[in-house]
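May I ask you to comment on the folded chain given beneath this request?
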Amino acid sequence: MTTAKEIMHPGAQWIKKTDTVLRASQLMRDLNVGAIPVADENERLCGIITDRDITVKCVAEGLDASRCQAAELCEGTPRWIDANADVEDVLHEMENHRIKRLPVIENKKLVGMISEADLAQHLTDDQIAEFAEMVYARGS
């Protein structure tokens, strides 16, 4: 059984929900990633901010990224997967919720992220095709 921990990109970082969107974008730049998990005051996952969120919900709305807090861009219930979950569970979680990035949690701490690129390296062609169909082609 291949686990989430085996296919994830290790060393993911998160920001506090009170950190600014500017800080989030700088961390994305420094880490060369397109999404940053957001943690509450108890270091629990409370959301994820993507580069698209920053562009559409902050910049395009004329908000000041140096004043706008990360929590203002987070929506919905954040999805995550346990580090020991089977890769099939990872695939189903991402397909069922139509998400392209999935935080990996171990002992209540963020240990990594799984992206489409990680899936592409570890799944069969049929599994990748199923993922693409479910996430991109399926109607809302």
